[in-house]
Amino acid sequence: MNPGHTTKLNDLLTLLRQGDTDAVRTELIEHSCQRLRLLAAKMLNRYPMVRRWEQTDDVFVELATRLHQTLEDVRPESARHFYNLAGQKVRWVLIEMARRHYGPLGVGRNHDTGEQAETSSQPRNVSEWVAFHEAVENLPDEAREVFNLTWYEGLSQDEIGEVLGLSVRTVKRRWQAARCQLYEALDGEPPS
Fold first, then answer.
1. How many CB atoms lie within 10 A of CB 122?
2. Quick one: which of 113, 116, 148, 187 has the most CB atoms within 10 Å?
C-alpha cells in the first residue's frame, strides 16, 4: 500500500465529515477505485461458480454504488473505519450475488460450472461460500477488522498495523484468533 494512499484517504474522509457533498463521496470512491476493483477480481477468482455469472466490473459497480450511498449517512472517522465499511459492503455484495444466482429462483441453481474451488480451504459450493462470509460478519470486532484487512483488502501485516495503530505481533495474534474462530464456526478448515 502506498503511504500516500492512506494520507489522501484520511484527507478525503476529513472533507466528508466537514460537509455532505456528492463530489467528496465520488472522489473518495475514485481514490479507492483501484483497490476496490482488485478486491472484486480477487474474490471472483476464488469462486468460479459466481464468476460464471458475474464479471469483476459487475461486482465493482455494485460495491461502489453501495459504498457511495452508505457514505451519504456514514462518516468514517479514519482509513481504518473506511476499510471496515468497505469490507462489510464487499461481503454483502458477494453474499447477495451468490444467493441471486444459486438461490431457489437462481439461474445457476441447476447449472454445473465444471469448475471446483481452487484449494481445499475454499468453500466447495455457494452455501458454504455464503456461510463463510456470514461467519466473517459475525466475528468479534477486533478479529473481523484484521481478517477484513487481510482477506478482503489484501493488506500486509505491517500495513494493517499502520492502519490500526497496532504492533505486527498484535495483528498476527488477531489474525490467528479470527482463523480459529472461523474454523469453529464453519466446522472445517480455516481459509489460508
1. 17
2. 148
DSSP three-state, residue 172: helix
User: Which segments of the chain does DSSP mark as H helices, in order?
Assistant: 3-18, 22-46, 48-51, 56-70, 79-102, 126-137, 141-147, 157-164, 168-186
67 burial (CB, 10 Å; 0-12 / 13-18 / 19+) is buried
By the 8 A CB rule, do 73 and 92 touch?
Answer: no
- Angle (deg, nearest 10), helices 56-70 and 22-46: 140
Amino acid at 26: T
Angle at 69 between CA 68 and CA 71, to 5 degrees: 65
Q: What are phi and psi for residue 77, nearest 5 degrees?
A: -80, -20
The dihedral through the CA atoms of 18, 64, 124, 103 has a sign that is positive
* Cβ contact 90:19 at 8 Å: no
Q: Are 101 and 108 in contact (CB under 8 A)?
A: yes
CA gap 180, 135 in Å, rounded: 12
Distance in angstroms (rounded) separating the CA atoms of residues 181 and 4: 34
Which residues of the chain fall below pLDDT 70?
A: 1-3, 20, 47-48, 103-126, 189-192
Q: What is the pTM of this model?
A: 0.70
